[in-house]
Amino acid sequence: MILELDCGNSFIKWRVLSPAQTGIVAFGSVGVMEELERALQAIPALALAHARLVSVRSDEETAELVAFIAGHFGIDACCARPELSRGGVRNGYEDFARLGLDRWLAILGAYQQSPGACLVLDLGTAVTSDFVAPDGQHLGGFICPGMPLMRNQLRTHTRRIRYDDAAALEALVSLEPGRSTVEAVERGCVLMLKGFVQAQLEIARGYWGDGFETYLTGGDAKLLAQMLPRARLAPDLIFSGLAVACPLP
């Protein structure tokens, strides 16, 4: 079996693949390594032979994760690293090592699924966009605050904006002008995201007309799925790129 980890700043997404990589045995999301240990121990007949991970955490935290896997399961984890090129894609950053690993793997995953021009939109804590030309040349991209950052900034810096996550979710049943603070904030943030995404589409059309694929990934991808009916909703896009970056021996 193969253990895959996507270690973000707040959560660790994980999944276990069957030995032949033909299906997902189990998956989940945890906050700390102890929770990951308990989740994996609950899988019947778990027999890990390989592990690979991507981490945007500090070098020390990533080293702890690698040591945890080695200590508990007796296997060495392959860690995705910054690269100038991989899987037919060439990193477009002036300093290739500065491109976030989550963005790099999402690009690799998208190009692996459909080699050709593509726009990759990752809607998480931050929202990122990346443009890849038909020949695999990464053209760069943009970064802006995502829903969690926009929401938390308003809550933190505006005294009278106070509401919980349940109210936030309920407020998004429509995008009509808000008649309460929670509706006004949540719907306003979504409209800002929509404006950002619309600008990315215009840039992509300027490059390639309609001859490109759009990929949506990240926790808030579903919020904009209706706006982009032709887009590919790909929640596991980073894992797809991880398989490209860390192929099995």
Task: Based on the model shown, name its key terms.
7 helices, globular, cytoplasm
Descriptive notes:
With 249 residues, this protein is of the alpha/beta class. Helices cover 37% and strands 24% of the residues. It is built from 7 helices and 12 strands. It has helices at residues 33-41, 59-73, 101-113, 147-157, 165-171, 181-208, 237-245, and strands spanning 2-7, 12-17, 24-30, 50-55, 77-79, 85-86, 89-90, 118-123, 126-132, 138-145, 213-217, 232-233. The chain has a 5-stranded mixed β-sheet, sandwiched between helices. Helix 2 (59-73) links the parallel strand 4 and strand 5.
Write the topology of this structure.
Layout: E1 2-7, E2 12-17, E3 24-30, H1 33-41, E4 50-55, H2 59-73, E5 77-79, E6 85-86, E7 89-90, H3 101-113, E8 118-123, E9 126-132, E10 138-145, H4 147-157, H5 165-171, H6 181-208, E11 213-217, E12 232-233, H7 237-245
Parallel strand pairs: 1-4, 4-5, 8-11, 11-12
Antiparallel strand pairs: 1-2, 2-3, 6-7, 8-9, 9-10
